[in-house]
Amino acid sequence: MDDQQLLREAIALERTAQQALLRGDAARSRTLFRDAAERYRASWEAAGPRAFGRLIGFLKASVLWGEGGHAAAYVRDALSAADGCDSPPACYALALAAAIQGDDEEVLQAIDGMRASDDAAFARTADALHALAVGDRDAYARAVTAIVADFAAREHHLTGVAFADTAVMLERLAGPREMAARPASTVMPVLG
Hints:
By secondary structure, the chain is mainly alpha-helical. 71% of the residues lie in helices and 0% in strands. It has one domain (3-177): Serine Threonine Protein Phosphatase 5, Tetratricopeptide repeat (Alpha Horseshoe), CATH 1.25.40.
C-alpha cells in the first residue's frame, strides 16, 4: 500500500474515532485511535523522511488512544535519524514526543523551532507546551482555550469533524500534571 493510501486510511479512522469520542464512546474511540496511529506510522515509514505531519498525527492518535510512551520514543528516534528539529513541523513532533516523555528541557528547546513558523496554530500550541513544561497553569489554560476557540471557529477540519484534537491531546498530557483546564466547547468531548 502506498503512503497516500495509508494516510487517507489514518484520517478516516481518526474521523470515526473523533465521532465516537464526541458521542461519549471512549472504548470504541481508543480502538479507532490505535488503528489510526498504526496507519499514521506506516504512512510515515512509506513516505520518506520529511513527512513530519504524519509523525504529529501518529503522536496525537497515540495519546488519544492512551499509549503515547512507545510512540514518543519511536518519534524521537525517527527525528534523530532525520536531522532532528530542523523545521517547525519537525520541532512540533519533537516537542510533543518530549512532553509525552516528561522531558521538559527538550520541550522548551523544541518549541523555539515551532515558533519559527508563521502559522498561528503552531504558536498557540507552542504556548501551551511551554506552559506545561514550566508548570504555569494560568498560561496553559489561556493557551488551550485559544486552541479550542480556533478549532471552534474553523470552517474546515482535517478529518471533516469539528473536533479540537490538539486541545484534547494537550489536556491528556496536562491531566497527570494536574493542569487540565477542561475548556467547554462543542469541539471538545467530556474528558474523564
